[in-house]
Amino acid sequence: MIARPALFLAAAAASLAACAGPKPLTYKQQQTASSANCLLGPFVVNADGSLTWDQLQAGIDKQFKAADLNGDGVLSGMEITHINDARTGTCDTSSLIDWSGTGKIDRDTYAARYETTFGFADRERDGTVTAMEMATAPSRSETKPAKHKPQPQQTDPTQMPGGLPNASGGAY
Fold this sequence. Notes:
Blueprint: H1 3-19, H2 27-40, E1 51-52, H3 53-67, E2 74-76, H4 77-87, E3 104-106, H5 107-121, E4 128-129, H6 131-135
Antiparallel strand pairs: 1-4, 2-3
Helix pairs in contact: 3-5
């Protein structure tokens, strides 16, 4: 008779666990998710929250063309200023910076951070970032576990690098 209540309790626990849903995201995952969602979210057009590489590229092209007010194929001067001003107070606070020193930002430079974020998020490397991948995307700031580094061998203090004896160690 004791086996029945134990069986009942085990079944009840299993059904409750199934209703619990997925584990909540860790604080680091929540921070990263908001970062990935901030950058990639505007490009998502699928009802399931996924984003393909081609959709990302089409979205970047659309954004870049809209920002290129004079249509010369690069962003410069006031175009860059407008984008940076528009980002103020939003989740996307990274300024566009002309790292080349030419005063211009081309489409590839504009696209790089979106493409990098997509690459970090696309864990299956299948060209599609699912909503779950976006929510748990690794951050660029996350470090990989440290590899064991072999300890340097003790050297003879009378030897110079390369194996030659030093002045106090005797003859050459």
